[in-house]
Every structure is written in structure tokens, then in C-alpha cells.
Design goal:
Helices cover about 0% and strands about 45% of the residues. The protein is elongated, with a radius of gyration of 42 Å. The chain is mainly β. The longest helix has 17 residues. The strands form 15 sheets. Strands 43, 45, 46, 48, 51 and 53 form a six-stranded antiparallel β-sheet that branches. Strands 44-47-52-49-50 form a five-stranded antiparallel β-sheet, with no helix packed on it. A five-stranded antiparallel β-sheet has the order 54-61-60-57-58, with no helix packed on it.
Length: about 800
């Protein structure tokens, strides 16, 4: 023994120098070699005096080593056994149980109760139905007074269950061979709470057996593992996660959610050194750390506190002479000694005693989404520079990775077709989750075109805006020639709105991509304002709060939901904007008109040029408390004269809703070139809550209602130069036939019944017939088709199916 101890000290010095190179969160304490022997698995034991022992499987039997002093391990006993490369050990109470694949050995039982003075041992070869039949077994597990033998010569290698009520004299209880599995052979496994988790190494799956009746176990579930060579299973401390190892080249330590055995799912998997071919052997769980023996890699510690994000946080190589693939190096590891020290068995190099430093990982997780659509992006690579973190997003766009090394990092995110994103200053901290949601954009596109009138003359300072459903907005303004350019627009589908005061705003859907050419638009003179743009309405008044503001309305409630301030604009126009009196949200009286008046005045309206009988249309909103005398007064102004179109009070129709109002100018005054409309709201004393709004303001020509006219006939025309429009009712195409083929330029305009333009385009005449392709999503209803030339205008009433 003395000679062995001297040899141990020499090896300690040598290995201490050897391993000074690259341990991670491990401190080397000692190494005890076994000359002429190779090692198998290992377990630990503590005697009644508190001495700690390593119980080591060797090719010649069992070695019991006192490791109480971790820097000076002493072999105190050897227990001979038949020669075998495989030996597995577990303890229960004051007994150790040993299996081997050497034939005619059965189960070896070692009585440790007299340590450190002495030990005794014997073999159990079966009783009852298996009396004298047990000759070998590969592995075992002990739980709650029962021993489970795996890979024995009995029942095709199914688990054999022994009752240890008398630990010196086991009693055969049952086996798992009646589960109906394609492979009954269980190589290893663990048991807890009457549930057995068997590792079917040749079947490539783990099984779940109900052991409530141990004489007749019931198979409940199976689940394949990442490399389909399932060697070892072990449960998390809370029994909600099962950890597995696959004993093949480039194998994984994996974590499965087993909280619901009918819905088992793989949470994560990890390799000690990805791609180097190394093989994981066994793993055990302590305080949410997975401690694993990893053949040529040695001992590794994995932070499993977040089992869907396994992070390597410790490493000690017990076999530097070997690397990569191969069954050399660390066979087993035991992390449960009270001292906290870890003991490990290396096949060639003997027993190691190590002190671990358990450190939590720096968790780095998040989601990668498309900037434009908000849709998760699978297959995006998230790389943390100056580290080994390199993760690919899953089908949900999620990534989970991490490191043991805290610090500030730079992250790059790449995906084919997207612009690479670089994020600097990402701080990762041990034990802390850093969650980063990342947006990737397709290469931006510069969109350009021309905004012009029906005579193809550019409209200076015309406004254009591209908007999508995810809140991305790109604005542009035309130059003096009507040319606009909107830079760095993300590819996708947009609602584009074009407008300028004195022209009718138009809106339509457009797809922007790399092949998008010039996007040109024609605006027809007239007045239409849905407040997508700020056309210069004037706001005046002395109210302390609740003055007119152009905004996306935020609803407030008095009695019914959003009956005070509206929660949305009039939904029949192009945008979400409107003018409202205050928009602060909160209580109904939080931002209403208070202690004074607020007035909203339109820009100048020329209602003489181009109009014979103009009608002013808009939608208004009004709310006032029932006992209030507050009002909304809508006036038409011509010079210094003003005319009340409507005085809205608490008794008016349509309050607390968007109400369409139409006012024929000739009913009040002769149309002029300089007219305005104003919306005047006053909070009269005593003060009450009052709110108002206006939206979708426009001017139309007062056309007579002609419901009696045949739908294919001309409602209004000059010289009847439109011969026919077919079909009518229509679906998505119209054929227009003219009487005069000498016309060169035609402007075609399709409007709905309230005058909104849904199609405006210029057609170069080549013959007396042309075809229009219309939006298939156009709602059913009545429309008006106006065809104009320099000399003629015709209008046709149509019906969309």
C-alpha cells in the first residue's frame, strides 16, 4: 500500500502539470493510477465516521479508495471479481451492489458497514423463479428499496426487479419483458416514484414503465433520442426533465420535457466539442447541473437550470493523450460526495479527484423576425463573435445559446436574402437571461416615380406615403417637376396614398420588390382630405385643453365603449387619421374641450372653377353629456360672410358615431373662388365633457339621382362619345367603346357612390375600344365611371357583382 501511495504522489505531480493547460471551473486534486488494470464505472460512499470513498470498478474487481483527503487518495480494500471490462456499482444504505458482464458472476453484494476496518462480499445468482439463473448483468439502479438490473442474461435483457428489504438477500419481484417492445434489452436506466426510465441502446429510444405493481410493470411510452443509441437516462431534481446520452460518435447529451409523458418533447441537446467525434457516456444531475463522463473529453459540467438552453460551464480532460472519436478516457463520474468533490474513473489513467466550481451560464436567447411582416425567420444564424456561440433559429424563429464567460459581445445575425445585422454591446452575465428580439430586413429599395395631373404635368409638393400593417411608414414629397423618391423601403405589400390640397387623394395597394419600376400616379383636380396628410388646416381657440388635433383617435368612454372620443376614424377612407378635439385617452373628461372654444378651419376652397353645383361632404363626430348646452357649429365662409351648415347639440342625430353629412353650397350661397369650412366647438358654462371629430372631407358635383335609368345607359355625357361599357354588372374587367376614334388622350376615373376615387388612369387612344382591369377585391355595389378628354366628358353608372 505504501508503494502504491508513493506512485500516486508521483502521478499527481505529473498530471497536475499536464492539466494546468485547460481546465474550466475545475481544480485538480489527485490522480490514483491502476497499473496493469483498466477502469470501468465508479460510485461513491460515506461511512459512519464521515469518511468519503470512491468505489471503483476495475477489470479485476472493485477498488475501495478513501478520498477524504482529496489530494492523497488511499486504496483501502480490493474486492476480487471475474475479469471484465464492464463493471457498474451503486450503493444502498451500507451496501454496494456490483454488476459485470463476466459470465457466472451474478450480482455482487459488498457489506460496507464496517468501514474503514473491514468489508465482506458475496454473490447473488437469483431466487424463486430465477433461482440460480442470474449469471451476469450490464448495469443497475437502486431506488426506494429496490434494485433494478439492466442487460442481464434473463428476459432478453429486460429490467429485472429485486426487493432489497433484506439488503444482503435480494428477492426477485418481476421484470419488464411483457411491455411489447421491439427491443426488450435495457442497457441502463433510472427509477423514481414508481416510474422506470429505460435506456434501450440498440433500439435507440428510452421507455417509460409504470412500476406501481412491480410484479407486472406496464409500458406507458417510448421516445427516440437524438443519435438513436440510448445509453443512459437520469432525471432532473424536479423530475420534469429526463436527460439522456447516446454512446456513438458525435453524440449528444439531451434534455426531454417529460412532465406529461403523453407529450414528451426534446428541449435541447449539447455536444462537449461539436463536430470532433467525441462520445458521451453517462450523465448525472446535481442542483440542475448535468455532470457527465465524456470518454476522450473527460468530465464536463453542463448548466441545465434552463433545460431548453444547455450550456457547458465546466471541463476537465482526464485523458489528454486521446481526443475525438474512440472509447478511451473517462468512463464514469460521481458528483454526490458531501465535500462537493467529484470522483472520476479514466479507463487508462485511473482515479481522479477533482474540485468543481459550479457556475451558471450566461443565457442568451431571443427571436429573429422579419422587419416588415413580423413573421419569425427560421434558419437564421445568430453568431456571437469572439466566442463559440453560433446558433441557428428554429421553426419559430427562436434561438437559445449561452456561455460561461461573462462579458460584452458583438452579435451578427445572417439569413440568405436578408441584410446582415450587427448588434454591439450585448452584455452577458452569469446566471442572467439576456433576451434579444432581432429584426432582419430584406434589402431596402428606393421607390421613385412621378405624380402628375390628367394633362401629364407634374404636381409639385404632392405627398406620397407607403404604409404596411406592421406600422412601417415611408414618406415622400414630389419636387417641382412632380418627381418623388422614397428611399430604403423594405420589400413587401403596402397601402400607398397620394394627395395634395386641390386634388383628389387616391390610395391603392402596391407590391414593392427588386423588380418594382417607376410608380407613377395621376391626381384629378378637386377636394378630398381624409387627413392622411397635413394640408394646412388652421387651428385656433382659447380652450385650456382638448383643442383640435390631427391624430389616430384614442377612444374614451362615458357610458358605452368609446362613446366620448372615437377609438377609430371613419373607416371608409384611405387612412386611420382624423381631426379630433384632444386625444389624450384616459377618462372621458381627461382631454375633452374645456373652458373655452377650439376652431378648425379648412384651407381655401375654390368652389367656382370646375364645379356647377358643388356639394360639401364630410363625416362628423359629436359627444356631449346629457345635461350640457355645448355645441359643434359647422360654418361655410365666403369672404367675411359665414353660413351655418349645422349646429350640433345633445339632441342631434348620430351623436357618438361617425355621421355622413352633405351640404349643397347653392342652398346657402353662390359658390366662390375663396371659401372655407370651419368646425367650431365650445365648452359653455357650466362646464361639461364635450368631444368632436371630422374626417373624410371632400367636394363632389351634385349629380341627380337616376335610379330609373338603365344601368347600361349614359347618365351624363357631352356628345355621347362613350358608346357602351360592357359587361354591366361587371366583375373585374370592363370593355369601353367610343363613338369618336380621333381622341388621343383619355382620363378614366372610377368613383364609389360617395365620390371616392378607386381608379384613376390615363389611356392613350389607339382605336375606338379599350379594356380596363379592375381590382378583384373591389366590394360589390354601385360605382360611376367617368371618361374625359379635352373636349368631352361622359359618366356611366355601373354595378359591381
Amino acid at each position: 500500500m505504501r508503494k502504491l501511495l508513493l506512485s500516486t504522489i508521483a502521478i499527481i505531480i505529473y498530471c497536475g502539470q499536464l492539466h494546468a493547460q485547460s481546465p474550466l471551473n475545475f481544480t485538480f486534486k489527485s490522480n490514483l493510477p491502476y497499473p496493469g488494470k483498466s477502469l470501468a464505472n465508479i460510485w461513491g460512499y460515506v461511512d459512519s465516521l464521515g469518511n468519503e470513498y470512491a468505489i471503483v470498478g476495475t477489470t479485476a474487481g472493485v477498488s475501495i479508495v478513501n478520498v477524504t483527503n482529496p489530494t492523497s487518495p488511499v486504496e483501502v480494500f480490493t474486492v476480487p471479481g471475474l475479469s471484465s471490462s464492464w463493471r457498474e456499482i451503486k450503493t444502498s444504505g451500507k451496501y454496494a451492489y456490483v454488476t459485470t458482464e463476466a459470465t457466472v458472476s451474478g450480482l455482487q453484494i459488498i457489506n460496507l458497514s464496517n468501514l474503514p476496518a473491514s468489508i465482506t462480499s458475496k454473490y447473488y445468482t437469483g431466487d424463486g423463479a430465477i433461482n440460480g439463473l442470474l449469471t451476469k448483468a450490464h448495469a443497475l439502479h437502486i431506488d426506494a428499496g429496490y434494485c433494478y438490473l439492466y442487460g442481464s442474461n434473463l428476459f432478453s435483457g429486460a429490467a429485472v426487479i429485486l426487493n432489497l428489504s433484506d439488503p444482503w438477500n435480494p428477492v426477485y419481484t418481476g421484470n419488464t419483458s411483457n411491455g411489447g417492445l421491439s427491443s426488450n434489452y435495457i442497457h441502463d436506466g433510472c427509477v423514481s416514484n414508481d416510474t422506470l426510465w429505460g435506456a434501450h441502446v440498440y433500439g435507440g429510444f428510452f421507455s417509460v414503465f409504470n412500476l406501481a405493481n412491480k410484479s407486472a410493470p406496464v409500458l406507458m411510452q417510448t421516445q427516440s433520442t437524438p443519435n438513436t443509441f440510448t445509453h443512459n437516462t437520469w432525471l432532473s431534481d424536479n423530475h420534469r426533465v429526463l436527460f439522456t446520452t447516446d454512446e456513438v460518435t458525435n453524440s449528444y447529451l439531451a434534455a426531454f420535457d417529460v412532465a406529461d409523458i403523453n407529450n414528451i418533447s426534446l428541449l435541447d441537446k449539447i455536444q462537449s466539442t461539436p463536430g470532433n467525434g467525441s462520445i458521451v457516456h453517462n450523465t448525472y444531475i446535481k442542483n440542475d447541473y448535468a455532470v457527465a463522463s465524456y470518454y476522450t473529453e473527460g468530465v464536463i459540467i453542463v448548466d441545465a437550470a434552463r433545460p431548453d438552453n444547455l450550456i457547458k460551464v465546466g471541463h476537465y480532460d482526464t485523458s489528454p493523450a486521446y481526443s475525438g472519436n474512440g472509447y478511451h478516457g473517462c468512463w464514469g463520474v460521481y458528483p454526490y460526495l458531501p465535500s462537493g468533490n467529484i470522483i472520476a474513473s479514466d479507463i487508462e489513467n485511473g482515479l481522479y479527484v477533482l474540485t468543481p466550481n459550479y457556475v451558471r451560464g450566461c443565457y442568451f436567447e431571443g427571436t429573429v423576425i422579419d422587419t416588415l411582416t413580423g413573421v419569425p425567420i427560421p434558419g437564421a444564424t445568430v453568431q456571437v463573435l469572439s466566442s463559440s456561440m453560433n446558433e441557428v433559429t428554429n421553426a419559430s424563429g427562436q434561438f437559445r445559446t449561452g456561455t460561461v464567460n461573462a462579458g460584452t459581445y458583438t452579435v451578427t445575425v445572417t439569413k440568405a436574402g436578408y441584410v446582415t445585422k450587427t448588434i454591439t454591446g450585448v452584455v452577458l452575465t452569469n446566471g442572467v437571461l439576456t433576451n434579444l428580439n432581432i429584426q432582419l430586413a430584406l434589402p431596402a429599395i428606393n421607390v421613385s416615380g412621378k405624380i402628375q395631373d390628367v394633362a401629364n404635368i407634374g404636381i409639385p409638393n404632392a405627398n406620397i406615403v407607403f404604409e404596411n400593417n406592421n406600422g412601417f411608414t415611408f414618406n415622400g414629397t414630389a419636387d417641382s417637376s412632380g418627381v418623388y423618391q422614397v428611399n430604403e423601403v423594405y420589400p413587401g405589400t403596402y397601402a400607398v396614398t397620394i394627395g395634395k390640397w386641390k386634388y383628389k387623394t387616391i390610395c391603392q395597394s402596391v407590391v414593392v420588390n427588386a423588380s418594382t419600376g417607376s410608380l407613377d400616379y395621376i391626381l384629378v383636380k378637386g377636394y378630398y382630405d381624409d387627413f392622411t396628410f397635413d394640408f394646412g388646416w388652421v387651428k385656433a381657440g382659447n380652450a385650456k385643453k382638448g383643442k383640435w388635433v390631427r391624430a389616430i383617435p384614442v377612444g374614451t368612454t362615458y357610458i358605452n365603449p368609446n362613446d366620448a372620443n372615437p377609438d377609430a376614424d371613419a373607416n371608409t377612407d384611405c387612412s386611420k387619421w382624423a381631426y379630433v378635439t384632444g386625444n389624450g385617452g384616459g377618462a372621458y373628461n381627461n382631454d375633452d374641450v374645456d373652458s373655452g372654444f377650439t376652431n378648425l378651419i379648412s384651407p381655401v376652397l375654390d368652389l367656382k372653377t370646375g364645379y356647377a353645383d358643388p356639394v360639401i361632404r364630410f363625416k362628423r363626430w359629436f359627444f356631449v353629456q346629457p345635461n350640457s348646452n355645448d355645441t359643434l357649429i359647422i360654418k361655410l365662409q365666403k369672404g367675411t360672410a359665414s353660413y351655418i351648415l349645422e349646429q350640433v347639440t345633445k339632441t342631434s342625430v348620430g351623436n357618438s358615431s361617425w355621421l355622413q353629412r352633405n351640404y349643397r353650397v347653392l342652398d346657402y350661397v353662390t359658390p366662390g373662388k375663396s371659401m372655407k369650412v370651419s368646425f367650431y366647438v365650445k365648452d359653455k358654462r357650466p362646464e361639461h365633457a364635450v368631444e368632436a371629430g371630422v374626417d373624410e372631407f371632400y367636394v363632389v358635383e351634385n349629380l341627380p339621382a337616376r335610379d330609373d335609368v338603365n344601368l347600361t345607359s349614359i347618365i351624363q355625357s357631352e356628345n355621347d362619345f362613350v358608346k357602351s361599357v360592357y359587361p354591366n354588372p361587371f366583375n373585374d374587367q370592363l370593355i369601353v367603346t367610343l363613338n369618336n376614334d380621333e381622341l388621343n388622350i383619355l382620363v378614366v376615373e372610377l368613383t364609389d357612390v360617395i365620390g371616392r376615387i378607386v381608379l384613376s388612369k390615363t389611356i392613350t387612344k389607339g382605336d375606338d375600344e379599350f379594356q380596363l382591369s379592375l381590382n378583384k377585391e373591389l366590394q360589390s355595389g354601385v360605382y360611376f365611371l367617368k371618361v374625359k378628354s379635352d373636349e368631352h366628358v361622359a359618366m356611366v353608372k355601373l354595378v359591381k357583382k
